[in-house]
Amino acid sequence: MRDFSTDHRWLSINTATVRRQHGQDWGLLDILDACAARGIRAVSPWRDQVAAAGLQATAARLKQHGIELSGYCRGGMFTHAGAASRQAVRDDNRRALDEACTLGAPCLVLVVGGLPGALQGHALHKDIGAARAQVHEGIALLLEDARRVSMPLAIEPLHPMYAADRACVNTLEQALDLCDELDLAPAGPAGVSGPAALGVAVDVYHVWWDPKLQAQIERAGHRRLLAFHVCDWLVPTRDLLNDRGMMGDGVIDIPRVRGWVEAAGFAGYSEVEIFSAENWWKREGGEVLATCIERHRCAV
Ligand code: ZN
Predict the structure, then answer these.
(1) Which end of the chain, N or C, is less packed with Cβ atoms under 10 Å?
(2) Phi-psi region at 160: left, alpha or beta (left = phi > 0; alpha = psi -120 to 50)
(3) How far does residue 273's CA lie from ligand 1's centre (Å)?
(4) Per the confidence metrics, is the pTM higher than 0.90?
(5) Does a structural domain hold residue 294?
(6) What is the pLDDT of residues 57-104, one digit of tens each?
(7) Residue 158 Cα, ligand 1 centroid: separation in angstroms?
(8) Cβ–Cβ contacts within 10 Å for residue 174, how many?
(9) Residue 110 C-alpha to ligand 1 middle, in angstroms?
(10) Cα(74) to centroid(ligand 1), Å
(11) Position 263 in a domain
């Protein structure tokens, strides 16, 4: 397992972590400047932040600083109410793919969607099986586009508390079943073959509780392990979406999980992704980044 204790070369910042600092209007370009100033070599930006900063301006600033992407957030939201919205979903995901290519992302992260309408507060039906069938179809279609532009897709299983409104893929096993159904990617020795066209993003916040986690990480192997996200699970958790903890402040044994993904051949960035309305978003952005660096060394 890599030693993170003396530097932060494998730290990536998911830019949502410092997106809403109170009294500090950081746009994406400001975040990139702040990361570069602290020797942070990678980020994972969100599409709305890129849209606000401008796609070409973002690409130019990344290049100027020599900052890489550890992923691009996000595509997906495949579940829909009918033919018109099905086409809109596909078009939007194609645009996300194009943006990911322009920015040189290693993968497009997919949050697959829950029951249609639920995120807006009114689920159109209760058939989660039907929603999962739409996800299967949506990924199959997007995979055709993704293969054409050589952009890997990373399915991110979300904690089951989000099954209704954000993602009806809730375990690593379920995500890998989709991978195996839609993409034949024989496992090869680490370092010999590149990433699979379809893989997974392992976010410790979503999967830490799963008794099958270690076995499913082994099953994924290095070709399907496309991204590794870290933060911590606080007790108590006060908000289902925006109360994620800084690494080391909660109950997730992050080094243990990192050991498993690295034993499976993952050698990429540890991406810090913290949504924290009542704590970290209330602090000065530079302080948050400094804390991410410190905790990356001692708690990841
Ligand atoms: Zn994540």
Answers:
(1) N
(2) alpha
(3) 6
(4) yes
(5) no
(6) 999 999 999 999 999 999 999 999 998 899 999 999 999 999 999 999
(7) 8
(8) 18
(9) 10
(10) 10
(11) no
